[in-house]
Design brief:
The protein has 123 residues and is mainly β. Strand 7 and strand 8 (77-82) form a beta hairpin. The chain has one helix at 102-105; strands spanning 4-7, 10-13, 18-24, 33-39, 46-51, 57-59, 67-72, 77-82, 91-98, 112-113, 117-122. The strands form two sheets. Strands 2, 4, 5, 6, 9, 10 and 11 form a seven-stranded mixed β-sheet that branches. The model has no long low-confidence stretch (mean pLDDT 96).
């Protein structure tokens, strides 16, 4: 059974940084592409960043230059480094994974989801 467990959320002032982590019980994790979604208050979910098994990445325009997605296949862990945070980044952030290939993941089409971690940015 696939499980994705996020951590690292919290409250931070605008301009600050947070690093989210997601541990996946997927074997072999290296064959899955992964990504991060977020759901702001009273808004629809949106894709934030995705990373292929080989390291190719894709970002939403709203986070380009501020967020960095990375993965550690040895430890089955996905990361999202978030810098220069803004109030509009406030959301529940979800980790996701998919075995079906980059063609789906780059369009944020995932079949496995975590439970989420809350990020709150105060202005």
């Amino acid at each position: 059974q696939v499980q994705l467990v996020e951590s690292g959320g919290g409250s931070v002032q605008a301009g600050g940084s947070l690093r989210l982590s997601c541990v996946a019980t997927i074997y072999p994790y290296s064959t899955y592409c992964s990504g991060w979604f977020r759901r702001p208050p009273r808004k629809e979910p949106e894709g934030v960043a995705a990373i292929a098994s080989g390291g190719t990445t894709s970002y939403a325009d709203s986070v380009k230059g501020r967020f960095t997605i990375s993965r550690d296949n040895t430890n089955n862990t996905l990361y999202l480094q978030m810098n220069s945070l803004k109030a509009e980044d406030t959301a529940m952030y979800y980790c996701a994974a998919d075995p079906r290939g980059w063609a789906r993941c780059q369009h944020f089409d995932f079949i496995h989801w975590g439970q989420g971690t809350q990020v709150t940015v105060s202005s």
